[in-house]
Amino acid sequence: MLIPGENGIALCRGCTEQGEIHCETCQEPMPAGRGKQCESCSWKKAFERRLKVNAETFELQHIRRLFIEFGQWLEGHLGAHRAFLRLLNYMPFFDFLTSQPSGIPSYFSLLEHFHADGIRRMKTPMLWLKEAYGVEADPLMRENHSEKRRIEELLRSVLNGTASTALGKYHASLMIKVSEGTMTLRSVRLSLRAAVGVLGEASSSLDVLPSKESVRHYLSKTPGQKAAAQGFIGYLNRTLGLDLDVTVSKRTLARVKREKLEHELMTMLGSGGSGETFERSWIKLALMFFHGLTSINKKSLLYDRVSMDAQEGFQVQLGGKEYWVPVPDDAGSVDFRAHQPLE
Question: Which of 14, 43, 290, 337 satisfies CB 3.0 to 4.6 Å to 32 for a cystine?
Answer without folding.
Answer: 14
